[in-house]
Amino acid sequence: MMSPNIYLDIDGVLLSNGKSAIGLDSFIAYLDDKHQGNVYWLTTHCKGSNDSVISYLKQFVGNEQTLKAMGHIKPTKWNVAKTEGIDLDQPFIWFDDNLLYGEKMILEQNNALENMILVNLKDKPNSLENFVQDFPIPV
Ligand SMILES: [Mg+2]
After folding, report:
1. pLDDT (tens digit, 9 = 90+) per residue, 28-39?
2. What is the rounded CA–CA span in Å between residue 133 and residue 48?
3. What is the pLDDT of residues 47-90, one digit of tens each?
């Protein structure tokens, strides 16, 4: 199967209360190994460039390998809805801890709501480890 595009939020997904989430290093290593070239930032910390994302993450991520792999992740551009940054014509998985009503509508219209993985690190702190064990597959 072709690698899906993978879209990553940061706060509440990779970071939890200003700390690296459990399993962050292995999650990023997995993405870099299996999906490099198809991974995108989808976060308020990225508006078209990777530099601002990396300088933000450097405050929280100490592992040099992880930061290097994060440097391979591509930027997106969006203004109001994160769905603007998603190529809805391609298979994708979107990890986020929040889904706005308008974004949900767009996903539903594209029969892609199940491709959005709602992450809740408060209730499931080991989520990133679980994704590496059993990576979501696009519908
Ligand atoms: Mg978030």
Report:
1. 999 999 999 999
2. 31
3. 778 889 999 999 999 999 999 999 999 999 999 999 999 999 99
Element (H, E) at 117: strand 116-118
Distance 15 CA to ligand 1 centre (A): 9
Query: What are the residue boundaries of the structural domains of the chain, listed by start?
Result: 5-133
Separation CA 71–CA 118 (nearest Å)? 24
**Nearest of 58, 28, 4, 18 to residue 128 by alpha carbon:** 28
Q: Which fold would CATH assign to domain 5-133? A: Rossmann fold (3.40.50)
Q: How far away, in angstroms, is 34 Cα from ligand 1 center?
A: 24
∠ CA 82-49-107, rounded to 5°: 15
**CA 9 to ligand 1 center in whole angstroms:** 5
- Could you give the dihedral angle defined by the CA atoms of residues 86, 88, 89 and 92, in that order, rounded to the nearest 10 degrees? 70
